Every structure is written in C-alpha cells, then in structure tokens.
Amino acid sequence: MDSESKTLTYATQTVRPPRTAPLAVIMFTGLGLIALGGCFLIGVMEIIHPTTFQGTPMAARLTYPQIVFICALSLLALGSFTGAIVLIVIGTRGLLRLIQN
Question: I need a surface site. Which of 11, 50, 54, 87 has the fewest CB within 10 A?
Fold first, then answer.
C-alpha cells in the first residue's frame, strides 16, 4: 500500500466561506426595531398633539390614563431603540471582524 491510499479524503478540513447572512439579518432586525420605536413615538405624538392627525383642536388636559399610556409607549420606544443599538453594534462588530480576517 502506498501513502496515497492511506489518506482519508472525507476527513480533511474544507475552507468555509465567511457567513455574512446571519450578521446582515441581525443588522436589518436592528433597523426594524428602530422603525418600531418610531411607531411608538408616533402614538405618543398623536396623544399629545391630536391636531396633527385629527385636525380638530383639543382644549382638554391629559387624563391620568392618557399619561400612563404615554409613559408605556415611551418605555416601549426606549426598549426598541436600546435593542436596536445592541443589535447594530453586534452586527457591525461581526462584519468588521470578518473584514479583518
């Protein structure tokens, strides 16, 4: 038996191309969270300035449930923006790591 017949061709390591698709999905998910946070802030703007969407002026003060709803929407927007920043940083760091290698 010669040395060529003793090598296992199926056990050799193959060179894998860099996987950019998961990192791109992470980046686009971060952008989607930014859009979602913007939608929450549009809801806050609708409650605070109803003339923007309805056209009729509203002279009444904000009620307690409206203030609670504004706080909830603001917290959801803040959470969306925070998650978006985290995802964009993770995706950017991963893509930059691929470029450096």
Answer: 11
List, in order, residues 6 or more apart from 101 with CB less than 8 Å away. 18
Residue 84 has a CB neighbour count (10 Å cut-off) of: 20
- In 3D space, the residue among 73, 78, 71, 63 whose CA is nearest the CA of residue 43 turns out to be 73
CA distance 12 to 9: 6
Higher pLDDT, 31 or 5: 31
Q: What is the pTM of this model?
A: 0.76
Domain limits of the chain?
19-100
Q: Which residues contact 70 (CB under 8 A, 6 or more apart)?
A: 44, 47, 48, 62
Q: How far apart are CA 83 and CA 28, in angstroms?
A: 12
Task: Note the helical H segments in 1-101.
Answer: 21-48, 64-100
